[in-house]
Design a protein that fits this description.
It comes from Golovinomyces cichoracearum. This protein is mostly helical and 202 residues long. It has helices spanning 2-10, 17-24, 29-34, 41-47, 50-60, 70-75, 83-106, 111-119, 126-133, 142-169, 176-181, 198-201. Helix 8 packs across helix 10 (142-169).
Length: 202
């Protein structure tokens, strides 16, 4: 019995690295950060592989604020980007956006400033808002959550459109299709087709 326990405890450590990396792709990123990487040095090394966190960023987040130049980063060699830190930042934005949205739902106090605080994250907050818009029907505050998540997303879209138009007034290099696509942001709501995707549809 003792031999069996030792064997079952250590066998994972002797698997080929390629197999462990494949397994980690299917593990919860929070479990990897909080638990798996503390098991042993080998797992710690594999759990910090940039390719793993690049995969998690690509899998979990569709929308990124323009400041990240994310499409360029996906084309760079994987080691050129601190993907784990980028993933942690997005998780922090997700948590903070959810907290602010919960506060907007619960109280009327300082709602405008909370809208503005979420908008400060730019498109990094969009995935979170879309998730709350698609909340399960059985959620206790489903109607209020969907309404305010949609409302904040609309505000975020309008802010984005105005910022782009301001760049055109400042003689910044803004593609014509992007400037025209901003009109759609005022009626987009939670549908696809915002300015970050205009180029793909033309």
């Amino acid at each position: 019995m003792l031999d069996y326990k030792i064997s079952s405890k250590t066998i994972f450590q002797y698997l080929p690295e390629e197999i462990i990396q494949k397994i980690l792709l299917h593990c919860d990123p929070d479990d990897i950060s909080l638990n798996l990487q503390r098991v042993c040095r080998r797992l710690q090394t594999l759990a910090n592989e940039p390719s793993l966190w690049r995969h998690n960023c690509h899998l979990e987040f569709r929308y990124w604020d323009i400041k990240h130049c994310i499409q360029d980063k996906y084309l760079w060699p994987v080691g050129y980007v601190d993907w784990k830190s980028l993933y942690r930042y997005r998780r922090k934005v997700d948590l903070k956006t959810t907290q602010l949205l919960n506060s907007i739902i619960c109280t009327q106090k300082s709602r405008i400033s909370k809208y503005e605080a979420i908008a400060e994250y730019g498109y990094d907050a969009k995935d979170t808002l879309l998730r709350h818009i698609a909340v399960d029907e059985n959620t206790e505050d489903v109607l209020a959550r969907r309404y305010y998540a949609n409302s904040v997303l609309d505000y975020l879209h309008r802010v984005n459109a105005i910022e782009i138009w301001q760049k055109t007034l400042d003689d910044k290099n803004v593609p014509v299709e992007t400037a025209l696509g901003c009109f759609d942001l005022f009626i987009l709501h939670n549908k696809r087709g915002d300015v970050s995707e205009v180029g793909r549809f033309i």
